[in-house]
Amino acid sequence: MRTCSIAAAFMLALGTAQVPAGPQHGIAMFGQPALPPDFEALPYANPDAPKGGRIVQGEVGTYDSLNPLILKGNVPWQLRFLAHESLMGRSYDEPFTLYGLLAETVEVAEDDSWVEFHLRPEARFSDGSPVTVEDVIWSYETLGTEGHPRYQGAWRNVASVEKVGDRGVRFAFDEPDRELALIMGMRPILKKAQWEGRDFADSGLDVIPVTSAPYVISDFEPGRSVTLTRNPDYWGADIPFMRGQANLDEIRMEFYGDQAVMFEAFKSGAMNVTRETDAQRWRTQYEFPRMQSGEVVKSEIPHERPSGIAGLVMNTRRPPLDDWRVREALIQAFNFEFVNNVLNGGALPRITSYFSNSELGMDHGPAEGRVAELLQRYGDALLPGAMDGYSLPEGDGSKRNRRGSRAALDLLGEAGWTIDAGGVLRNAEGERFDLEILLSQGGYEPQVAQRTADLYAAALERIGISPRITLIDHAQFTQRTNAFDFDMAWYMRGMSLSPGREQYLYWGADAADEPGSWNWMGATSPAIDGLIDEMLASGSREDYVAAVQALDRVLTTGRYVVPVWHNPVSYIAHDADLEYPDHLPVYGDFLGFLPDVWWKEAD
Fold this sequence. Notes:
Elements: H1 7-13, E1 26-28, E2 54-60, H2 79-82, E3 88-90, E4 97-100, E5 103-108, E6 114-119, H3 133-146, H4 149-155, E7 158-164, E8 168-173, H5 178-183, E9 215-221, E10 225-230, E11 250-256, H6 259-268, E12 273-276, H7 279-284, H8 289-292, E13 296-302, E14 309-314, H9 324-333, H10 336-344, H11 369-376, H12 402-414, E15 418-419, E16 425-426, E17 434-440, H13 444-462, E18 466-472, H14 474-482, E19 488-493, H15 502-507, H16 526-537, H17 541-557, E20 561-563, E21 569-575, E22 578-579, E23 599-600
Parallel strand pairs: 2-11, 17-18, 17-19
Antiparallel strand pairs: 1-4, 3-4, 5-6, 6-8, 7-8, 9-10, 10-11, 12-21, 13-21, 14-19, 14-20, 15-16, 22-23
Helix pairs in contact: 3-4, 9-12, 11-17, 16-17
C-alpha cells in the first residue's frame, strides 16, 4: 500500500534550528527546509513522468467568472491553483515550507521584519513577456486592495514594498512576523499591462488572465466547460520545484446539474477521473461495465491532515443561536451514530474537533501544561468545557435517541424554551422555535447534506422545534452565506497541518461582520483572536502545537457547528492509464496532488 508519514516532515518543518542568513532556495516557518538547494524534484513528484494525455473531471453547478482572485462571481474552483503561479511553491510533504518558483531566492530579516525575493531571470508569462518586479508589486497591491478578502488581511500588515536592484522586491512589515514572510511568497502574480484600464474587481468572463503558470485557458463555454492546455513554452518546466508536475497536455472541467448526472457521465466515459465523497456509494455503486473491464480503477489515498470541520454551522448573529446552551442542545439532538449508520454504514469516524485526526487536535480531558497556561489568560471568555474537558455526545444508536433528546430539552429549558401542550417549543413570549437549514443544490449537498438534514429535521421535530430545509442553487447559496442570511447552513472548512493567519479569516472577530468572510458562525471571542496571536508568535514547535491545541478547545467548545464525519482516506476513481507517484505527500489528495503530479501512461 502507498503510505505517507508526517513525523519526519513535521519535525523538520517545526524544528528549532535557525535558518541561515542570506538568500536561500526555500523557507520554513521554523528551522530549515528538508530539501537541499540542489534537490531534483519534490518527493511526491515523478521527474521521469511522460508528458501528454488529458484529464476530464467534473464539477457540479455552473460558473460566471474566470477570475478566482476576487469576491464577485462563481469560479471553477481549481482555476485558482492551476491558472496562476506565485513567487514560491508549497511542498505538501512539509507543513510550513516553501521552495522557489518564480523567485530564485528568498531572504528573511534576522528579526523577521522583512522578506526579500529575487525573481528568476527566465520567468515568463504565457505571452512570452518577462515577469518583472513591477508586475509583482502591482499584483500584491491590487490583490491587497481589490482582491478577494483572503488576500486583504495580510496586506494590511505590510508597511512598505520596494524594488531591490533589477529583479528583487522587499516587503517590510509593520511588526516582525515570521509567517507573513511565507504568506508573501504565495500570492498569485498577474501581468500588470493586461489590466490597465480595466476594473479588476468586476472582471468575469471578459478577461482570460495572462499568467506564468504551466496551463493557459484555451477554451471555455460559459457555465458548461473550461479547458486548460499545457503551454509547450512554459518557462519553468525544468526548475526543481516543477519537475514531474504539469504532465498532462490538457485539463478539462465539465459542469453538471447535480452529482447523479455527473456520476453517470463518469460511468459512460465522458469523464476519466472523479473524486468520490460518498463512502456508501464508493462501496456499493462502482461495479459498472468500465470498472469490471479494468478500464477504470479505484484508488484510495490516505492522508494525515486534520479532519477540519464539516456539518451544520449555526449563525450566532441570530437569536436564539447566540446562546451557547441552545447550540449545545442542537448538538445533543443530532443522533450521529444513527445518521452515520444510515448514510455511511457506520464506516466513517466522527469529527471530534476542528483539528482532530492530528497532533494539533485537542485532548478531551482537562487542559494541562502549556495548553492550560494559555487558556487561563482568557477566563470568562471561555465557555464550559474549554478548561475542564469536552466531548461530543454519544447517541444510543436508535432512531429516537431518547438520551440526546432529554439532554437537549434540559438545556433548552435552562435557556427559556419549553414545550407547550401541543408539542411545540416556545419561549416566554410564546414565540415558536423556528429554524431554517440552508443547503445548496448540486455537489456534495444533495447526496449527503440533504439526507443528513432530513434525518436531523425529524429529530428536531421530536423536541418541538420547527425546522425548514431550504434548497437553493449554488449562486443563491453563495449570496446568502456571503450576507450571513441563514440560521443553519451546510458548512465545510478544511484545516491544514500548518494553520496560520488564515485562522483570522475563518473565525476572527474582525471577519465576523465582513460580508463574504469565512466566519459564517459569527464568532467574536477574544480567546480565539488571542490564541491565533499566540500561535503566530510561537518561537518553537512545542509552543506552536500547544497554541493550536488551545485554539481547538475554544473553537470546539464554542458549539458553532453540529459536526458530522471525516474520511482519513480520499477516494479517486480514474481511467487505468492515469497514474500517480508511489510516494504520497503527507497531505494526501490535497490541492497539489490531482492533477498536478498525475500523468497518462504511454500506450
